[in-house]
Amino acid sequence: MGLLLQLEDGRRFTLGTRCLLGRHPACDVHIPDGRVSGEHASLHWAGAHWELRDLGSRNGTFVEGRRLASGERVELGQGQDFLLGKSGIGFRLLDASPPAARARHLATGQVRVATGALLVLPDDDEPQASLFPLDGGQWVLELGEERRRLKDQERVWLDGSEWVVELPLAATETLEEADAPTLAEVRLRIGVSRDEEHVEVAVHLREGERMLPPRSSQYLLATLARLRLAERALAPSEQGWVDRERLCRMLATDTNKLNVDIHRVRKQFGALGIQDAAGVVERRPGTGQVRLGMSSVEVFTL
């Protein structure tokens, strides 16, 4: 993801699709220095590269010693430096890769950044909502049984708190994720102890096997895998679907805990860099049904 380094103090800033630099407290990169204008400059992802723009600042924005004209845009490459003011504040574009989706809490300024193509809100410990792209790059919000499309800069309410989401363009997602594995390329091996108290999950990727850190939510994964394997005789599109209420009874849990476990399983797969990690647990819209979103899976006894 895009990363900006402030040269004087070593601060690093994760870049959203558009990033405002200036002295005003509302700027994404807040610089409380008299040499910097309220809204001094901006960095914007242009689909294939980052662009730096001067916003009519009093002391100017400088790249390689040249002052940009007001409103002028220039391409900024990885490792390239720029100054806000001729002898002012220096920055370096440390990472010129495309931006990741992120969300900003309006009250506190807290920023959450997507892992791979999955953004979980409000945090990893108590996940309530998942944001992820569908085919074609259109982002969706999944909150319990609700699923709806999201636009860049849209606001999301969770427990009375307001978040603003910053979503990359569809073209950005293609560039960022072209080399990332998909669930169709991944194979799962799930071991379950005889007393059903312990689960081990091995994920086979291109570079080899990765063991997931143990989590209680992995028993959900094992249960969904068993349901899908039991229906291998059906068409792939019909395998493994289970009503939420039935699944809750099988897991001896409730709907809220089930939703949290779904978020946590997706988060673990997202951390592996799998681009469609949210699909590891699929929901069938309008039915209340879920299933394991992978067909290449094995369940065995430890």
Overall structural class, as computed from helix and strand content, comes to: alpha+beta
* Beta-strand percent range: 35-45%
Please provide the ordered H/E string of secondary-structure elements.
Answer: EEEEEEEEEEEEEEEEEEEHEEEHEHHEEE
Q: Quickly count the helices.
A: 4
Low-confidence stretches: 170-178
Domain tally: 3
Mean pLDDT, as a whole number? 88
How far the N terminus sits from the C terminus, by CA atoms, comes to: 39 Å
Gyration radius from CA atoms, angstroms: 22 Å
How many extended strands? Answer: 26
For the biggest β-sheet, the strand order reads 2-1-11-10-7-8
> What level of helicity do the residues show?
10-25%
Largest sheet: 6 strands, antiparallel
Question: Which shape, going by the Cα principal axes?
Answer: elongated
